[in-house]
Amino acid sequence: MSKSSGHSSLGSENALQDPPTLSERYSGIPERLLGKARGVKALVYQNQTKEAHRERLRVPALPDGISPAAFDKAIQELRTQLGDDHVVINDQPLIDGWYMEHPNAHDAFNLFDTEDTVSSATAYPGNTAEVQVIVLWANKHLIPICPISMGRNLGYGGAAPRVRGSVVVDLGKRMNQILDINLDDYTCLVEPGVSFYALYEAVQERGYKHMWIDVPDLGGGSVLGNTLDRGVGYTPYGDHWGMHSGLEVVLPTGEVVRTGMGAMPGSTTWQNFPYAFGPLHDGLFSQSNFGIVTKMGITLMPNPGGSESYMYTFPKEEDLAQLCEIVRPLRISNVLENVAQLKHAIQEVAAMGFPRSDYYQGEGTIPMDVVRRELRKLPCGECTWIYYGTAYGPEHIRKSKLAMIDSEFKKVPGARGIDPATIPENSYFWARHRVASGVPDLHELAWLNWLPNGAHVFFSPHVLLEQQCSGQTEREAQRRA
């Protein structure tokens, strides 16, 4: 693997430093994953060809319609209210960092002008009352604000404000407490700066072996932030928004509203029951800018009595249509108990963490014969599609589910179930198993090394089957006739 030739001294220094741990920083990596994080960080920096940081062209990035004098006056007022250390002007180089040391002032994976989504300053509130102060201040001075929990939703722009020059309200740095874990009801109450790593480690440290958390592919993001963006995990509790129970929200007026049982005066059952009384309005604050959520209850998962992961491979590109028809009824009936994970085999090669240039130096798309050559070296063998899944419950229950899954998947000619006993411990398969068993990991970053300066841009396609829909329309017309 070739080293980058364009690093600045600042970038080189960053590359040599250990990632922060949870004991050092609320947003850090658990000690158990420190070795893996070191390796991932080294690969990220080795595979960079761009500058690790960029000097600023326009400092600071002021919001439209706000003069430098008006901005300075407003910022000084906010510093008086929050404290000088808790309001920081964004006048430094744009350091992109990486997943565990991400920026909170710009998009590390910008697609266009590097300064399009740059903030003017960052405010760090320490409690809900200070969030109210910031909202009222923004209303007074007509300065746009952009709240973040931890800013690690990197597939959708991270902490970058959509409106250039906004003041980022970084909730995570000073509001990062697990306020409650209820052993009887399997719930917890968290602030925005609690990551999946932090929540998992807290549950383990307290010895709650009967309690699982549900985690997404990477564990460094905010539990609250991921839930509000309707993120998903991989256990049967993977619908995080569906598992939330009660919010505390600062409205655009500066008022505070609580949903669920947290709205009841003197309530001691905040996160136990999501509905309380009357209309349910939680959805207003999901994927929206109608308020800043400062606390959230969420349901945890009882230990199901065990988990057993499986992997099936399918040989042909055209198997995809049949696979979708097999997966859909199994998922609807909850025989497949977690999010369907059907991946193209090229990702299995990329998940090794090495750049594409290690396998192919030509132009254009990597040839499939090269991919197949590498697949033959892996436990999956030569194939086109790979399905990952996990069965839950005591052994006799898992056995019944797995037999049904095996029967259905093997309706695809050439389908193979891979014996987990033949899969090495460092395989991507076992990272998927950990995540699907409620244990946050870091492995998913590996495939970003496929190309120099690797990143991802997420999109959510909705496929309309035109022929099927046309048939339904025709049948409806016949029925009406």
UniProtKB/TrEMBL annotation:
Region Disordered, residue ranges: 1-27
Pfam family for this entry, one: FAD_binding_4
UniProt key word Flavoprotein: yes
Domain of life: Eukaryota
Ranges of compositional bias, category Low complexity: 1-12
Keywords of this entry: FAD, Flavoprotein
Cited InterPro entries: Cytok_DH_C_sf, FAD-bd_PCMH, FAD-bd_PCMH-like_sf, FAD-bd_PCMH_sub1, FAD-bd_PCMH_sub2, FAD-linked_Oxase-like_C, Oxid_FAD_bind_N
Domain FAD-binding PCMH-type span(s) in chain numbering: 111-303
PANTHER family cross-referenced by the UniProt entry: ARYL-ALCOHOL OXIDASE VANILLYL-ALCOHOL OXIDASE (AFU_ORTHOLOGUE AFUA_3G09500)-RELATED (PTHR11748:SF114), D-LACTATE DEHYDROGENASE (PTHR11748)
Name of the protein described by the UniProt record: FAD-binding PCMH-type domain-containing protein
